[in-house]
Amino acid sequence: FCFRLFPLREHGMNWRAKPLTSQEIQAFKRSKEVMERFVRAYELMLGFYGIILVNKETGELKRAENWADRFENLNRFSHNNLRITRILKCLGEMGYERYQVHLVKFFLTETLVKGTLPNVKRSALDYFLFTVRSKRRRRELVHYAWQHFRPQEDFVWGPKEKLQKYR
């Protein structure tokens, strides 16, 4: 299901699914209808995870009313983390880097700040963070993660000297 909605240029868990070509991605981006469907698919998956896309322009997110039940599902079933990684990669492929940033920050906040998704924490740090295409935004997110990670001296996702000096 997820691989059909969020195709990539790489093989995923379903080896029968053909990876996208650069030409296909460019054709998708040129089609307003395809891009609108893509955003609807993103909203559908967010809803499944207990998240709402508040602003389609910025990518801002918030918890849905049913977030507690949905987060319980996220915490219990780790295969969701693979799907979220795939969605994040596809967002980058389709030119929705701003959506990537907001989704990664959402998961960092829920795992590191609010503590609601403890079983998603490693995936958020090991995989979600590094799907963000913008180097500057990725650095900002790594710094955000470092600021909220406890114990801070155990943070291994960036050099401590640079994180301490980051502005």
UniProtKB/TrEMBL annotation:
It holds the Pfam family OGFr_N. GO terms for cellular component: membrane. Residues 5-164 form the Opioid growth factor receptor (OGFr) conserved domain. InterPro entries: OGF_rcpt, OGFr. Signal peptide: none annotated. GO terms for molecular function: opioid growth factor receptor activity. Belongs to the opioid growth factor receptor family. This is OGFR factor. It comes from Oxyruncus cristatus. The gene is Ogfr.
